[in-house]
Amino acid sequence: MMPPSRLAGTLIPAMAFLSCLRPESWEPCVEVVPNSTYQCVDLNLYKIPDNIPSSTKNLDLSFNPLKRLGSHSFSNFTELKVLDLSRCEIHMIEDDAYQGLNHLSTLVLTGNPIQSLASGAFSGLSSLQRLVVVEINLASLENFPIGHLKTLKELNVAHNLIHSFKLPKYFSNLPILEHLDLSKNRIQNIYHKDLKVLHEMPLLNLSLDLSLNPIDFIQPGAFKEIKLHALTLRSNFNSTNVMKICIQGLAGLEVHRLVLGEFKNERKVEDFEKSSLEGLCNLIIKEFRLAFLDTSQDNIIDLFNCLANVSAISLVSLNFDRLEGIPKNFRWESLELVNCQLKKFPTLEHISLKRFIFTANKGGDTFAELHLPNLEILDLSRNGLSFKGCCSYADLKTAKLKHLDLSFNGIISMSSNFLGLEQLEYLDFRHSTLKQSSDFPVFLSLNNLIYLDISYTHTRVVFHGIFDGLFNLQILKMAGNSFQDNFLPNIFTKLTNLTFLDLSECLLEQVSQGAFDSLPRLQILNMSHNNLLSLDIRPYKHLYSLQVLDCSFNRIVASNVQEPQHLPRSLALLNLTENNIACACEHQSFLQWVKDQRQLLVEVEQMVCLTPLDMKDMPVLAFRNATCHMSKTIISVSVLSVLVVSVVVALVYKFYFHLMLLAGCKKYGRGESIYDAFVIYSSQDEDWVRNELVKNLEEGVPPFHLCLHYRDFIPGVAIAANIIQEGFHKSRKVIVVVSQHFIQSRWCIFEYEIAQTWQFLSSRSGIIFIVLQKVEKSLLRQQVELYRLLSRNTYLEWEDNVLWRPIFWRRLRKALLDGKARSPEGKVDSENSQYEATTST
Ligand SMILES: *[C@@H]1O[C@H](CO)[C@@H](O)[C@H](O)[C@H]1NC(C)=O
Ligand SMILES: *[C@@H]1O[C@H](CO)[C@@H](O)[C@H](O)[C@H]1NC(C)=O
Ligand SMILES: *[C@@H]1O[C@H](CO)[C@@H](O)[C@H](O)[C@H]1NC(C)=O
Ligand SMILES: *[C@@H]1O[C@H](CO)[C@@H](O)[C@H](O)[C@H]1NC(C)=O
Ligand SMILES: *[C@@H]1O[C@H](CO)[C@@H](O)[C@H](O)[C@H]1NC(C)=O
Ligand SMILES: *[C@@H]1O[C@H](CO)[C@@H](O)[C@H](O)[C@H]1NC(C)=O
Ligand SMILES: *[C@@H]1O[C@H](CO)[C@@H](O)[C@H](O)[C@H]1NC(C)=O
Ligand SMILES: *[C@@H]1O[C@H](CO)[C@@H](O)[C@H](O)[C@H]1NC(C)=O
Ligand SMILES: *[C@@H]1O[C@H](CO)[C@@H](O)[C@H](O)[C@H]1NC(C)=O
């Protein structure tokens, strides 16, 4: 045994430690709307944290151990409108706990084990409309201190321990009370005196829920002359007989809506039969609803003999075999059958019925004829029904139908184009399988249709006139269908009033340029989940009212149009997320556009690149066009240099000799000429050159020194080099002997071209032409340059004529003398030439 002192010594620090474990939580409340809405759920708080601003309007403090609400607990939060204190372990609420909350409209106190509730607990709540005090151990309404809450509209005291239905006197102070929820209490008996306050001060629009109270007895006449908006009695009676008697006790009640039945997991009434509802003949009811009952009726219609004057009937989750033969005197306008189990589709024939809702029922696979001439709304959705023919007056026998919902059914064969159903405004086929819907203009007569949904109907659009006739249509949903060749053709030309178009999941690869040209009012266009490869703006440019364009979940790589700015001006949202954006330089103008249009694009920060590999999964916004400029420059520079180099090479190749000439000019310069003239001639004319030219010029007075290749060229050196180095560089003038042979010889022409360059480079007028024979003009013309020169310049013409010769030689000598330096160079020249002549001969 441990001595007490030692025990205390270990326990006290341990307790201190444990108490430290439960300090005020430092985890902050969730700020849903700054300065206005805060959620502090389950934060181990024992008071309101200091960091909640006093301007807060909505405060959720549920699941915190507040334990006790002292007076003025919330006086620092005078703006509060909604205060949730569910399951805060509150056992005591003192006077004036909510004092100061003059704007509070909703107070939730669910799940607090309140033991002590001061009489002034709710004082000050001058605007409270909704008080939820579910599961607070309330045993009676009698002393509940809410008599002053004049603004109260809803009082929820469900799930408490209340035995008595007696509505206390203070209810007469709650003039606008509309909802009183007393469900799941312990009320067994209802007496006339309990409703005294309602007899004295009627609450005309009160909805009363008494479900899940074990009611055995309702005093007949208790509800006499009482008017209620709604009365709900579900799972109240533990036998058919009790139910029958209690319903009879309701006699005299006038209620807009009566709900009877049970809950899915709370079923006690068995053998529900015709007489069970007999008592309803003494009530005035507008709408009647029956839920979760197992009826043993063959034809359920027999139950409703006392409900002939009801305008709306709703049957939810019932089992029955048949529903047919609605008596003629029934004034039902609306009939709703939801989630019922029946043997076959009800064949209805009734004149007053305007609304027939038959959804999510089982059994009855095939639609049978209806005979409802005043029907306006028909909802047959979610039944797995199949329709052998659809749709025309012949099938429904009503010409007033405005709303037809056949969604989530089986196969529907479109056999007629709604003949006689011209009033239709709303038509829904989604997730049913339509047959033959694209063979002819099915909707041709639906000129009043505003809403059409054929999404996921396995429709393959082949016929372009499919939507003809729908010129009032505003909403068209056709997601999950397909088109021929996955190409969207011009099928909307008649739909000028369209504002919403859903083409998602249609396997579209291409869109016709004019597909949307006639839709000036379209506001929302959904192209998501298709296979579009590029953002082609052109089809959208006439959508003058377009606000939202959803192109997400496609395979868009980029925009193929240079200027995506041609999007409609009205566009506010463009969704390009989940595409295959290529962040490559070739698309840089598109990528720049993406950056510029941040406001327009949805979740632009989350858009990622797919290609190229090094950009994969990077944000599109991270693309930098600078890298493109760089590589562009590099590419252009290298292309340019390759070009320059090749041009240079080509030029060098072509003008190699000319360049040699140039180099020579530099080297030799002026005044170093050894020869008076370099003679260019064809070898065929060599005789003339030797016998006439050389003789006359070199042996005449003064003697000229000619450069002749047969004599003066240095052996062993390339001819071309000789021509340039010996011929041109060392000669003052060039004599060109033009003849037929000359023109025909490529070698001569080459020599001549070099001669021209030489003349240009040495800037001398040094070429002397001698035309040996009359050259044929046509031949000469082939050598354009030569021809031009000959026709522009004077040239010497050789004629074998004794009279002419002296003139010829004189002119030639004169031409050769032109520019020749006088003596002493002349001497040198002549000496040289002498020397040359002797050596060479
Ligand atoms: C919240 O209130 C504080 C003080 O009243 C004020 O300074 C602040 O601007 C408010 N914040 C917002 C988002 O209204
Ligand atoms: C109200 O606020 C004042 C000053 O901010 C503070 O001293 C006081 O404790 C608060 N009252 C309550 C009940 O929180
Ligand atoms: C009566 O209350 C219901 C809701 O319970 C409401 O829809 C209806 O408008 C109210 N009628 C009047 C006349 O206030
Ligand atoms: C019906 O309720 C009464 C009292 O609430 C009870 O005594 C009786 O056993 C119940 N009957 C059935 C069939 O549950
Ligand atoms: C329905 O109303 C008619 C006339 O208003 C009345 O004669 C008939 O008894 C009523 N039927 C029922 C079942 O309340
Ligand atoms: C289209 O809508 C406008 C306004 O909503 C309406 O006035 C017009 O009648 C509709 N039909 C056609 C064919 O324009
Ligand atoms: C377009 O359709 C897809 C599904 O098919 C949907 O998720 C998306 O929200 C739609 N977009 C718009 C703008 O309605
Ligand atoms: C594309 O963005 C729009 C606007 O935010 C949104 O309504 C739509 O749901 C988005 N599309 C998809 C497929 O999520
Ligand atoms: C490249 O980016 C700069 C700035 O981000 C921008 O001004 C320029 O227009 C862009 N160039 C191209 C070709 O998109």
Give an overview in words.
It is built from 16 helices and 41 strands. With 841 residues, the chain is of the alpha/beta class. Helix content is 21%, strand content 18%. The chain is elongated and about 165 Å long. It binds 2-acetamido-2-deoxy-beta-D-glucopyranose (9 copies). One 2-acetamido-2-deoxy-beta-D-glucopyranose binds next to strand 36.
| Count of DSSP strands | 41
Q: How much strand content do the residues show?
A: 15-25%
End-to-end separation in angstroms reads 150 Å
In helices, the fraction of residues equals: 10-25%
Task: Give unreliable regions as ranges.
Answer: 11-25, 823-841
- Structural class, by secondary structure, is alpha/beta
Number of helices: 16
Computed CA radius of gyration, to the nearest angstrom: 55 Å
- Taken from the alpha-carbon principal axes, the silhouette is elongated
Rounded mean pLDDT is: 86
The main pleated sheet reads as: 24 strands, mixed
Which ligands does the model contain, each kind named once?
A: 2-acetamido-2-deoxy-beta-D-glucopyranose
